Amino acid sequence: MDSIVAYSNRPPPTVSFEDVLLPATELHDVPAARYALCLVLQGEARLSYRVDDRWHTQWLHPGMFAPITPPHVEATLQLSGEQRHLMISIGEEAVARVAAESGTGEDGLDTLRLHAFKDPFLGALCRRAWAETRRGDPLGRSFADSIEGTLICGLLRSASATRRPPRSSLRSKLSEATLARIRDHCLARLHEPIAVADLAALAGLGPHQFGKAFKAASGWSPQQYLIALRTQRAQELLRSTRCAIAEIALQCGFFDQSHMTSTFTRCVGVSPHRYRHPMRQQDCVTSQEESRRSPCSQGPLDWTAASA
Q1: Which of 48, 70, 91, 308 sits at 20 to 30 Å (Cα–Cα) from 108?
Q2: What are 97-105's contacts with CB under 8 Å, separation 24+?
């Protein structure tokens, strides 16, 4: 009886869990004095989210953590499909305490705001803690409370890994084999969002170092290269298929037909419809001339040779 009374008088836990089924919709997180972490349990969907007035898009698969929402920050998110999430809430004071003890600083988790990430150990830990919490007994709650420090340390470790500088100056140089691996990775996944952090991981660099090394090696920023690849794929499909432009937009990784039309027109010089159906011979000639002058005309599929 004494143990039950003691349990009921405990302060509120600093880590809490909730199993939530989210529809395809726009979500708004109200600012709170807690870190919000989401582990995808079921379903695949495209996530669009806003950080510092800029929109980012990534593909979420089961086992991935969505970008973390820091305390006192209003988050706006859009899901393209239904997903089941394990929502994990972590107290701001607990994170500050562990960060101070480890000497990492409370802002160490900021990098996890920018992209989704995968950590099998942390994922399994959260699922086990949630299962223990659902038991509804003192032992289950004690188990969930006890993983607080481990969870925070794991998140801080994941965050530090994303910004770790290269071990030597040689790491900042991208070999032809690495460039080819990045190209193949992009071509195989043009139909879905491609995170610069994932490309950086292929090169063994942090996102910032990778951006500089990629620009030096290819003449393109990673974002410019992805846009050029998507636009070039769209040109190929417009010429060789009868697929609707909206369908081609999704196959090439554009958010929708409007997004593809504006990007395609900026790069090629004509709209997708006019590119596919020139009204007259002069339109065809103009389309070819505009395409040669566009930023995408350098041939992203051949850029490794051009940069050699």
Answers
A1: 48
A2: 98/149, 98/152, 98/153, 98/156, 99/152, 99/156, 102/153, 102/156, 104/156, 104/160
Give pLDDT tens digits for 15-43.
889 999 999 888 877 788 888 899 999 99
Handedness of CA 214, 218, 220, 224 (dihedral sign): negative
Q: DSSP 3-state helix, strand, coil percentages of the chain (rounded to 5)? A: 55, 20, 25
Q: How confident is the model at residue 285 (pLDDT cuts 50, 70, 90)?
A: very low
Residue 122 and residue 158 in contact, taking contact as beta carbons nearer than 8 Å = yes
CA distance 123 to 113: 17
pLDDT of 33 reads 84
Only one residue has tokens 């809430």, namely: 89
DSSP state of 165: P
What are the structure tokens assigned to 199, written together?
């490309």
Strands 45-51 and 75-79: antiparallel
* Residue 13, pLDDT score: 58
Beta partners for residue 29, in sequence order:
75
Nearest CA-CA partner of 238 in 216, 212, 265, 219: 265
pLDDT per residue as tens digits for the range 64-76: 999 888 888 877 8
Q: What is the pLDDT of residue 277?
A: 86
HSE-CB at 285 with a 13 A cutoff on CA atoms is 3
- Say whether pLDDT at 54 is over 50: yes
Q: Rounded CA gap, 291 and 275, in Å?
A: 10
